[in-house]
Amino acid sequence: MSKANPHNTPQHPWYILGAGAIGSLWATYGFQSGADIRLILRDQKAVNDYLQHGGIHLSIEGKALICTAPAECPSSLATPIKYLLITTKAQQTLDALNSIKPHISDHAVLLLLQNGLGIVEHIRQAFPLATILQGSTTEGCYRQSAYEFVHAGHGHTYIGNASQDHLQDDTRLTEIANTLSFPPLAISISDNIDEILWRKLAVNCAINPMTVIYNCRNGELLTNPKSRNHMTEVVNEIINVSTAMNRDHWLTGLHELVIDVATSTAQNRSSMLQDVQAGRRTEIDAITGYLCQLAKKYGVDVPINQQILSEINRISALDKC
Ligand SMILES: NC(=O)c1ccc[n+]([C@@H]2O[C@H](COP(=O)([O-])OP(=O)(O)OC[C@H]3O[C@@H](n4cnc5c(N)ncnc54)[C@H](OP(=O)(O)O)[C@@H]3O)[C@@H](O)[C@H]2O)c1
Questions:
Q1: Active-site position among 89, 101, 200, 297
Q2: Is the dihedral of CA 148, 152, 158, 162 positive or negative?
Q3: Which domain of life does this protein belong to (predicted)?
Q4: 89 is a catalytic site residue
Q5: For a substitution probing ligand 1, which of 92, 94, 95, 288 has the most ligand atoms within 8 Å of its CB?
Q6: What letters, b where the CB count within 10 A reaches 16 and e where it falls short, cover 133-142?
Q7: Ligand 1 center to residue 86 CA distance, Å?
Q8: pLDDT digits (tens, 9 = 90+) for 113-147
Q9: Looking at domain 195-320, does it have CATH number 1.10.1040.10?
């Protein structure tokens, strides 16, 4: 893995699709660094609200940063999009991309920065000539109100070629990482982003849905013997699937990693718990759902994860009634 530094000025603007917590983080630091950032919001009403609010307000350690980057919506987009950072939730990605499909250049660079897997295969079909990159971040950001966000924790971000997609050379990937490394956000390139994403998926499977089932903060999963044991069973099944896929070496120390993440984020309410409590669709299909799909494909039984998938879908449906 090599470290990228922010020395480059992009020749084309970076469009950001999904101006939520992560999208607004990149938009604000990008705007503050003088980069050409454009936001793509859902519709004209969202653009009007953004303008009325005076842009995005991001709090970081008591300081307030403002982003007034130009905002557009599918009906107002005019120029072809060559660089697109996608920061929607996994389940929102295909609808969001479809809404701007005519404006995306054939050879665009599409960088997915989100949790969950399985979306990239659909994107590749819809945009066969595009360069598709994937990223994983440990930055922490949350929304306080419509356009107010808090950068709650510094982390690191890796990007790499989505499997089967190969850029001509690593120099181009490094350039792309450079153009998005807006201080204090740091992006490194990875020659095995699939491994990073798989480990993240495994941790997400073991923590996020469990916080919904036990209706608790991340750390409480460890203090309740029932949920702790349940997490161990989830992790064992993930390791079985990974073994069938010859990926078990990617999950070395997974039990310990899950405990470390639950401990270091003990006070957090997971995004899945927040989504369920707010009556929003969760990322479960791209997390546990994706694991269960692969388990089926490789002939591995994952009854615990199947049960968790059904349970989250049942709880989500109840919340919508
Ligand atoms: N937040 C974090 O700290 C964090 C850390 C690591 C990874 N992640 C991952 O990063 C991804 C993004 O998370 P997030 O917390 O930033 O989520 P978020 O705050 O919900 O942001 C998603 C944004 O996408 C927008 N969107 C959805 N459909 C759209 C469409 N059709 N057109 C335009 N905009 C659309 C949403 O708008 P509406 O509000 O109108 O739906 C929302 O503003 C997730 O996969 C998450 O798991 C997040």
A1: 200
A2: negative
A3: Bacteria
A4: no
A5: 92
A6: bbbbbebbbb
A7: 9
A8: 999 999 999 999 999 999 999 999 999 999 999 99
A9: yes
